[in-house]
Amino acid sequence: MAESPTDVLLKGDSGRNTRGLLRFIILATIAAAAVSSRLFSVIRFESIIHEFDPWFNFRATKYLVQNGFYSFWDWFDDRTWHPLGRVTGGTLYPGLMVTSGVIYHVLRFLTFPVDIRNICVLLAPGFSGLTALAMYFLTCEVSPSPSAGLLAAAFMGIVPGYISRSVAGSYDNEAIAIFLLVFTFFLWIKAIKNGSIMWGALAALFYGYMVSAWGGYVFITNLIPLHVFVLLCMGRYSSRVYISYTTWYALGTLASMQIPFVGFLPIRNSDHMSALGVFGLLQLVAFADFVRGFVPGKHFQRLLTTMVILVFGIAFLGLVLLSVSGVIAPWSGRFYSLWDTGYAKIHIPIIASVSEHQPTAWPAFFFDLNFLIWLFPAGVYMCFRDLKDEHVFVIIYSVLASYFAGVMVRLMLTLTPIVCVASALALSSILDTYVFASNGPNPRSKANDDTPSEGLRSARKPEVGITSYLSKAFMLTSVVIYLILFVAHCTWVTSNAYSSPSVVLASRMPDGSQHIIDDYREAYYWLRQNTEHNAKIMSWWDYGYQIGGMADRPTLVDNNTWNNTHIATVGKAMSSREEVSYPILRQHDVDYVLVVFGGLLGYSGDDINKFLWMVRIAEGIWPDEVSERDYFTARGEYRVDDGATPTMRNSLMYKMSYYNYNSLFQPGQAVDRVRGTKLPMEGPQLSTLEEAFTSENWIIRIYKVKDLDNLGRDHGNAMAFDKGHKRKRATKRKGPRVLRTE
Amino acid sequence: MAPKRTPAAASSAAASGSSGPVSAPSPQTTAAPSSLSSGPKTLTTNSSIFDIAHTVWQQYLATTPQRTLLLDAFMAFLVLVGGVQFVYCVLAGNYPFNAFLSGFSAAVGQFVLTASLRMQTSSPSSSTTSGEEGAFADYVFGSLILHFFCINFIN
């Protein structure tokens, strides 16, 4: 199909320029596609921050922009974790906030009057364009084929596994961290190929940026040493390895220690010890390699044996000493849960309760990666065929990331880049094989400039094998169909699964028009308008960040789950009887309690469904006061209807969820649409709390904690008296109730 | 034993000896093995570790060019500095741990960078792309970053 005018453009010097220009245009288009496919949520809903964690990041960014960098660094936040507070400046990864702060100030300097919220909303799509670019560079380092890089960039731009964390509005650490991850790996491969200090130092700089942005930096910290270690084991030690690794480690470790939250971890935490170990090992190997230049083989062996024994003895002694004296911290819990998938459920319910920490379901792989997932092994196999240093890296990365992605849903994110690389390798080799097999070099060019006998052979040959037009057309068509299906799948997944802000819900009316359910913001705005500025709100920790961000009220617990006991306290208050809960609420100065209830609308992410986690976490701290078994019926069912256990029906959470719910329905007809059950005839009675606000669709219910009774009665009696139930007074035999102190 | 060792030493001189620009001392290095073989120490198959180590030392002194020796002296100094800091930390406590860490890692980092520079400049067989000037520019770049972080970390 290449006729003379295109030949002029595609061959020789001008051809190179044309191809460069084309490549640039293609990359720009890919970046544009990556950005625009993430804008579904902005178009459907509005420019709003999504989900939970982003609300904290947004709040922190606003604080940074308003108060400047230094006060952000020293920020002590007394409006979260009441009454403890949180040293926010020292316990967050500041990379994200600082990045958007810098963008904000640059744009302001260029006199663009842009709102910080819009920067935060659009940061993730913007960086996804950069990720596609970084992906192109990374793949070009791995593969000689120019098409592989472009394919990988295109895959990375729209693959749902990455979009899931980077749609507009999901202002989370991963938004920039994946770009940094890919770019650090690109720099690392560049460094190990060139063996230059500069690339190693650049890799270390971006590694430092990555550390400042996301806790997942530990993945890099362990992957790069592993790569080096495998190279050493393969007998591939060279000065390039030494230069790039030691430069990266020395500078990268220092860079990572600049972040207050990381601090001395790289020295103390076992997660980082492999990097240190490989660093030491590499010094020894380098020294041995240096000495080997001076002595003949046999003597070198003896020298080496002595050295090895000596060094291992010292290292072992040192390790034992350090472990005994407790200088080196044990492995962190999240790390254990990576290896033993049951660990978290037994030991740290707080980690297991997060849905993104659950093991991945098999369909999720196909859902998130579509046809890349079956091209992926082929690409890895192709890395084995010419096993250069960078291919070893791809192989190690894919093996490790596959495992981790199977353990935790959210680590699918780290698998996605390498899947894009590997499948781009596979696909580009298919395309190269079939497109170039006959068109250019093989038969025709030979026929043109060689002897007639060759021409004869080529005239005979093209009809068979892969060079025939039929097979080419077949292969290319199928590849194109797969690619089109991929694009269609990605668009569908992005628009349907990943573009919901989860702060604003959407549903369809019977006539097909969209109906926006905005209960969250309604309720948070009510809090902002109608409560005192320092009113303490208790809710389950999922909503802590949103209350802090949207309602601007102090919370007891939030999504930064650093204090398990405090969360368990809230869990206990939610899952106990009113008589037990009320003292807890009083002790923590709680003014309002917020629960999420989806029973009216059929919104399944509500607190009753999360309730068992509250019970479990509370049970972890107070095993003899809260017991998970009590919330199940004798037959082991979790029920909210007539068959619910007394413990369940007396728990504060149950009461708050269903309080007054009966009044919406005919008597005896109250239905919970999430659990799909009919509720008891008589609704629960609350005596220590009073309903303050219920949102339009009943998703959010806010209760005010009553003050102590003026006459010193307990609230049950006061309620009974107000209602005129004189009989109930007879039950008061136990004397005045006192505040429970723990 | 002596004839067996001479080719080994010559090859080692070629492998880890002078690079292109530093070709001036290379006549010396070819002369060195003969002077060594006339020395008192000859390595037998079961000579002790110390003998071997001593031979290595002699070889090293004889075959390394002046500029590389300078780098090596600097590296030895850095090892000394790092060692002293470490011993101080063990004996006198690590109270300003930031300061200790930044001092120690400055020594380690500089050592590592210098070793890299030495590898890039002294062995022609290394497959690094940049020349000597490039290697030195890289070295300066790396050192600048290193010391920036150290000073920032020292509190």
From TrEMBL, chain A:
Biased composition range(s): Basic residues: 724-742
Q: Name one Pfam family in it.
A: STT3
Q: What cofactor is needed?
A: Mg(2+); Mn(2+)
Q: Does the keyword Transmembrane helix apply?
A: yes
Q: Which GO terms describe its biological process?
A: post-translational protein modification; protein N-linked glycosylation via asparagine
Major localization listed first in the record, in broad terms:
endoplasmic reticulum
This enzyme catalyses: a di-trans,poly-cis-dolichyl diphosphooligosaccharide + L-asparaginyl-[protein] = N(4)-(oligosaccharide-(1->4)-N-acetyl-beta-D-glucosaminyl-(1->4)-N-acetyl-beta-D-glucosaminyl)-L-asparaginyl-[protein] + a di-trans,poly-cis-dolichyl diphosphate + H(+)
The record's annotation in Gene3D superfamilies points to: 3.40.50.12610
Q: Which domain of life is it from?
A: Eukaryota
Q: Which part of the chain is the STT3/PglB/AglB core domain? A: 537-586
A molecular function (GO) term: metal ion binding
Pathway membership: Protein modification; protein glycosylation
Give the membrane topology, semicolon-separated if more than one: Multi-pass membrane protein
Where is the protein situated, by its record's location annotation?
Answer: Endoplasmic reticulum membrane
Question: Which InterPro entries does UniProt cross-reference here?
Answer: Oligo_trans_STT3, STT3-PglB_core, STT3_N
Oligosaccharyl transferase STT3 N-terminal domain location is: 22-422
**Membrane-spanning residues:** 21-43, 91-107, 119-139, 145-163, 175-192, 212-234, 246-267, 273-291, 303-329, 364-384, 391-409, 415-437, 473-494
* EC number annotated for this UniProt entry: 2.4.99.18
The record's similarity note reads: Belongs to the STT3 family.
The name under which this protein is listed is Dolichyl-diphosphooligosaccharide--protein glycosyltransferase subunit STT3
The protein's organism comes out as Aspergillus heteromorphus CBS 117.55
UniProtKB/TrEMBL annotation, chain B:
Chief subcellular location: endoplasmic reticulum
Q: State the superkingdom.
A: Eukaryota
Span-the-membrane segments of this chain are 69-90, 97-116, 136-154
The pathway noted for it is:
Protein modification; protein glycosylation
Keywords (A to Z) from UniProt: Endoplasmic reticulum, Membrane, Transmembrane, Transmembrane helix
Q: Where is the composition biased (Polar residues)?
A: 28-40
Cell compartments where the protein resides: Endoplasmic reticulum membrane
- Could you tell me which Pfam families the record lists for this protein? DAD
Residue span of region Disordered: 1-40
Q: Is-annotated flag, keyword Nucleus?
A: no
Q: Which GO terms describe its cellular component?
A: oligosaccharyltransferase complex
Tell me the GO BP annotations in alphabetical order: protein N-linked glycosylation
Q: How does it sit in the membrane?
A: Multi-pass membrane protein
Q: Give the function comment from the record.
A: Subunit of the oligosaccharyl transferase (OST) complex that catalyzes the initial transfer of a defined glycan (Glc(3)Man(9)GlcNAc(2) in eukaryotes) from the lipid carrier dolichol-pyrophosphate to an asparagine residue within an Asn-X-Ser/Thr consensus motif in nascent polypeptide chains, the first step in protein N-glycosylation. N-glycosylation occurs cotranslationally and the complex associates with the Sec61 complex at the channel-forming translocon complex that mediates protein translocation across the endoplasmic reticulum (ER). All subunits are required for a maximal enzyme activity.
Report quaternary structure and partners. Answer: Component of the oligosaccharyltransferase (OST) complex.
The record's similarity note reads: Belongs to the DAD/OST2 family.
- The protein in question is named Dolichyl-diphosphooligosaccharide--protein glycosyltransferase subunit OST2
Q: Which source organism?
A: Aspergillus heteromorphus CBS 117.55
